[in-house]
Amino acid sequence: MSALFGILLAVWNLTQPARIPELEREFTCPVAVPAPYTQDRRAREGTLLVVYKEHYRIGLYQNARLKSIAGEDACFRVAMGATPWKPKTRRDYASTPEGWYHVGDKRDRGQTAFYRGFLIDYPNQDDVDRALAQGVITQATADQLTAQLKAGKVPSQSTAMGGSVLIHGMGSEYPNWTLGCVAVDNRVMDTLFDHVHTGDDILIIPWGNAPHDAVQ
User: Fold this and answer.
1) Does pTM surpass 0.85?
2) Is 23 strand, coil or helix?
3) What are the structural domains, with CATH classification, of the chain?
4) Contacts of 93 (CB under 8 A, 6+ apart)
5) What was the pLDDT predicted at 18?
6) Are 165 and 107 in contact (CB under 8 A)?
């Protein structure tokens, strides 16, 4: 990490809600995908990664139930970017997307600078509509992205909306250190890599919408 990046990261972190380890440790991933998300078929069927942004956690679910791996709940700590409470609409190197996505592809050792990871196929249609309304992208770019989404393709990662947002390794330590990605410890990424596949669903619950208490 360069000295300049370290300085910029420190300045960014002064603007964000403090990460309080004691409070984070009190949160455990719900044993079932929380309402109202269970109304969506994607929450009820198959493999699903759920990111609880406000609680700095990621849970691995199967058919809406939190998985148990080697006798432990598949609920793990994460780090994010400098402004994790914001939905991503532009290339800002700080915010993390919110909503429904897929694993666009899996990147193993040597395919990413961050150990191993899953590409989040940001932007989704809601992101595109929001960015167009905010003037981040043109109508032509919005039409291009919409066509890619309708075709089931990973949308372009090089527009003004930004891209290349991953769930990756290299650590969940304090403070937030990514450029908007979701980071876990390498041992956690190894575990997830064995259970998650390209095309699996990802749900990133918006800041403020996550359950504040464990749902048992």
Assistant:
1) yes
2) helix
3) 3-122+162-205 (2.40.440.10)
4) 81, 162, 179, 180
5) 56
6) no
Instruction: Let me know: does 126 contact 85? Beta carbons within 8 Å.
Output: no
Residue-wise pLDDT tens digits, 116-173: 999 999 999 999 999 999 999 999 999 999 999 999 999 999 999 999 999 999 999 8
Q: What is the DSSP string of 109-152?
A: TTSSTTSSEEEE----HHHHHHHHHTTSS-HHHHHHHHHHHHTT
- Choose among 64, 45, 165, 148: nearest CA to 105: 165
% of the chain with per-residue pLDDT over 90: 76
Contact 92, 82 (CB under 8 A): no
- CA–CA separation, 136 vs 138, rounded Å? 7
Three-state SS for 166-216 is EEECCCCCCCCCCCCCEECCHHHHHHHHHHCCCCCEEEEECCCCCCCCCCC
From the list 215, 191, 5, 176, the residue with the least C-alpha distance to 95 is: 176
- Write down the residue that tokens 């058919």 correspond to: 63
Tokens of 70: 């080697």
In one letter, which amino acid is 112? T
For residue 107, the SS3 value is: strand
User: Tokens 């800041």 appear where?
Assistant: 207
- Return the number of other C-beta atoms located less than 10 Å from residue 150's C-beta: 9
